[in-house]
Amino acid sequence: MTEIEKLSFEDAMRELEATVGKLETGEATLEESIALYERGAALRQHCEKRLREAEERVEKITLSANGQPTGTEPVEGQ
Fold first, then answer.
1. Angle at Cα 75 formed by Cα 57 and Cα 60, nearest 5°?
2. Which of 64, 76, 16 lies closest to 44, judged by CA?
3. Which residues 6+ apart lie within 8 Å of 36 measured at CB?
4. What is the rounded distance in angstroms from the CA atom of residue 56 to the CA atom of residue 42?
5. Rounded Cα–Cα distance for residues 72 and 11 (Å)
6. What residues contact residue 37 under an 8 Å CB cut-off, 6+ apart?
7. 59 or 64: whose pLDDT is higher?
8. Per-residue pLDDT for 71 more than 80?
């Protein structure tokens, strides 16, 4: 598991926002900008994956006849 994969969604999002901020200032060298861009792309991908996983879990919440949550169903493919 990579360092980015260990980050929570919230931590990855904060780092992504900070990375974008650094790129927007235009003060980084070309090499630094490339490294920031690559890290930002990996952070974005991680955030998208975490959101997809959360959406799948929410979709799998099971309800009783009266509409009360009764648990979850396993996401297919896990």
1. 45
2. 16
3. 19, 22, 23, 28
4. 21
5. 26
6. 23
7. 59
8. no
* Model pLDDT, residue 75: 58
In order of start, what are the domains of the chain with their CATH numbers? 3-65 (1.10.287)
- Please give the single-letter amino acid code of residue 24: E
Of 23, 20, 41, nearest to 31 by C-alpha is 23
The closest alpha carbon to 73, from 60, 54, 64, belongs to 60
Structure tokens at 64: 């009783």
Task: Encode pLDDT of 12-62 as tens digits.
Answer: 999 999 999 999 999 999 999 999 999 999 999 999 999 999 988 887 776
Sequence letter at residue 19? T
* Contact residues for 63 (Cβ-Cβ < 8 A; gap 6+): 69, 70
